[in-house]
UniProtKB/TrEMBL annotation:
The gene coding this protein: mtnC
Entry's EC annotation: 3.1.3.77
Subunit structure: Monomer.
Protein name: Enolase-phosphatase E1
Gene3D superfamilies, alphabetized: 1.10.720.60, HAD superfamily/HAD-like (3.40.50.1000)
Length: 230
């Protein structure tokens, strides 16, 4: 019996194009000014720059060099925890100033509410920082969805393609692996979750459906058919 739904964001609850064509360019444009204004006296920003310097080998006092590294990581869609933390801080300003409104698929909006009301516990696992996750669900075009979620996990718990990350989530949740349904559009993430014993549904929102033994869904209404069965 599935009691917990753990969901990815990009390509699952929100479109890939919102993340790549709106959020990433916004971060790329605003990160330089954001960092230059804070790198000396904001401990949260300084701490993330320490991590960028360590990972990249660029000198810690070379702020322009660190900004260049971050811009490159955005272009490459690198899931670096420090980048994700800084992006979350920049997006917070954008959402609060009304410059950003998040996309959520209509079916995701409908079924997140239904599943919550039905007593399922809902959690998020995304490469975006927990702050960014709360923002994307808090400032959608359809309203605030954060009341439906019981918790959030980011790459602080481990990478999304590693089975140990899902084991860590299970031990945080204190539930049996088989009672958790993980939703994602990325097959390697589903494989890792399955290795940890979770059930999975593969969201394929566009294009041909893959030939696979996995449960595949076009949208959350189809995921719901699986939830009603198990
Ligand atoms: C949390 S909103 C921004 C999403 C993001 O930065 C990202 O890299 C997408 O990762 P996901 O694990 O949701 O595919
Ligand atoms: Mg995804």
């Amino acid at each position: 019996m599935i009691r917990v739904v753990l969901t990815d964001i990009e390509g699952t609850t929100s479109s890939i194009s919102f993340v790549h064509d709106v959020l990433f360019p916004y971060a790329s444009e605003h990160l330089p000014g954001f960092i230059r204004a804070r790198y000396q006296d904001n401990p949260a920003v300084a701490g993330q720059l320490d991590a960028v310097a360590e990972k990249s080998g660029v000198a810690r006092d070379d702020v322009d060099g660190l900004i260049e590294v971050l811009q490159g990581w955005i272009r490459e869609d690198r899931k670096e925890t420090a980048l994700k933390a800084l992006q979350g801080m920049v997006w917070e300003q954008g959402y609060q100033q009304g410059e950003l409104k998040a996309h959520i698929y209509a079916d995701a909006a409908e079924y997140l509410q239904r599943w919550h009301d039905r007593g399922l516990r809902l959690f998020v696992y995304s490469s975006g920082s927990v702050k960014a996750q709360k923002l994307i669900f808090g400032f959608t075009t359809e309203g605030d969805f954060t009341p439906f979620f019981s918790g959030y996990f980011d790459t602080g718990i481990g990478g999304k393609k590693e089975a140990d990350s899902y084991r860590n989530i299970l031990s945080e949740l204190g539930v049996e692996a088989g009672t958790v349904l993980f939703l994602s559009d990325v097959e390697a993430e589903l494989e890792a979750a399955e290795q940890a014993g979770m059930q999975t549904a593969w969201l394929v929102r566009e294009g041909d459906l893959p030939e696979t033994g996995r449960f595949v869904a076009r949208d959350f209404a189809e995921v719901d058919t699986l939830l009603q069965k198990r």
